[in-house]
Amino acid sequence: MTKLSTREVVLLSVLLFIMVFGLGILYWINPMIANIEALESEKSNLEVQKIEMRTRIAQTGKLMENREQLLDDVDALMNELSDPLKGESFDRLTQSLARDRKIKIQSVSYGATSVVAPSAQSTPVQTCEFNLKELLNTYLNYSPSEVTGVSTDHEILKQSLVIEVEGSYANLQRFVGDLSNVGQTNYIKNVSYTRNDHEIFDDEGNPTDTETQESASIEIDVYFLNKEIPGGWVGK
To answer: What is the pLDDT of residues 38-63, one digit of tens each?
Structure first.
């Protein structure tokens, strides 16, 4: 067997090293690089999710503040609604206003009560759209179940009435203004004025003067809540 020279031994060693290095890159280093890239990608995704979650948590605090403000606003608005019409008390009120304006009420006709606002419905909550939603749901104490609509008895009602009055045009206008200020949600829908001139005769049947009789038909819509909720209009 021929003995290898030093140069040949060196070349064989270099070749063996290259083969081992090549196999190492193929079976060990390349998978490691792929795993590192996957971990880097996952880290980037988690950073994005962390930012999203922090933003959502910050927004949640703001939404809770807005919710409390909205509840206060709704409560204030509901307190502005007029009281339900009660014939006896409203008649006394209009008679008092009529005396102040020196006019005469001929009749007051009350219409039927109707619902003008639909039943309230709860708003569906949007599902979280990122992978860390379970942690966020725990923070919000929220279970992503289907939210169904609910009805309420506390609806806004409307009742119309018609008042027939007699008096001077100026006093009738003042009376209409007074009626507009009776309740926060009383609205004058229509006012129809009528003017009739009648001649006045003496005992002998001769015309001596002309009497003017003015009247008005006033249509009013009153909006009110049919049932007050103890402690406020909307539960907090």
So the answer is: 778 887 888 888 787 877 777 766 66
Closest CA to 224 of 112, 113, 82, 111: 82
Compute the average pLDDT of residues 190-204. Answer: 80
Specify the pTM: 0.47
Residue-by-residue DSSP string for 151-209: --S--EEEEEEEEEEES-HHHHHHHHHHHHTTSTTEEEEEEEEEEEEEEEE-TTS-EEE
Mean pLDDT of all residues in 9-13: 67
Residue 83: count of CB within 10 angstroms of its CB: 15
CATH class of 86-117+155-225: alpha beta
Is-contact 216 172, C-beta < 8 A?
yes
Contacts of 229 (CB under 8 A, 6+ apart): 154, 235
Secondary structure letter of residue 68 according to DSSP? H
What six digits make up the tokens of 44?
Answer: 């980037």
User: Domain spans of the chain?
Assistant: 86-117+155-225
What does the block give as tokens for 192?
């129809």
Query: Which pLDDT score, from 0 to 100, does residue 100 have?
Result: 93
User: Which residues are CB-neighbours of 235 under 8 A, at least 6 positions away?
Assistant: 229
Contacts of 199 (CB under 8 A, 6+ apart): 207, 209, 210, 211
CB 177, CB 186: distance < 8 Å: no
